[in-house]
What does this fold into?
Amino acid sequence: MTISLRQTLPSAWVQRFARLIPSGEVLDLACGSGRHARLLAAYGHRVEAVDRDPQALAELRQVPGVTLRQSDLEGPVWPYTGRLFSGIVVTNYLFRPRIDQLFACLADPGVLIYETFMHGNERYGRPSNPDFLLASQELLGWAQRRAWRVVAYEEGYRDDPAPAVVQSLCAARGAIDA
It folds into this structure.
């Protein structure tokens, strides 16, 4: 597998809002090779990096401040029941049946940074399956239903790092310094 430099750099959206996460443990969900886990650990957070791919996780084995968990997040058991995180970061991943459980893991205070693909992305490649594409303002609605403060929200076409149609959300639960 070839990984481009662009795939190893943290998302500009995550970089923009990561400093808002209160001190504590941060969950990097479906972390892949750990580009965001590395960033969050560099900011001094304790990071739980979870992915189903053991090879991707292996790249994080020596990163100080990062705890690894191999888990199928779409399997029958949710691994984070009863856990709270001061920050949750999710990029390029969507599994709607777990959204309520995932969002229940955000501490008060806490910051959610979420960025993934939406309808329209099928014109540019994968994912193209509607099960993995957000409807317009879907992320925004999830945060608003919980009465979380929306720090920033964007949706639409972007061309960097590659052409795609995405939604990006930064939302806060409780009082944070924004």
User: Anything to note?
Assistant: Strands lie at 25-29, 46-51, 66-70, 85-91, 106-117, 149-158, 164-173. Confidence is low (pLDDT under 50) at residues 1-6.
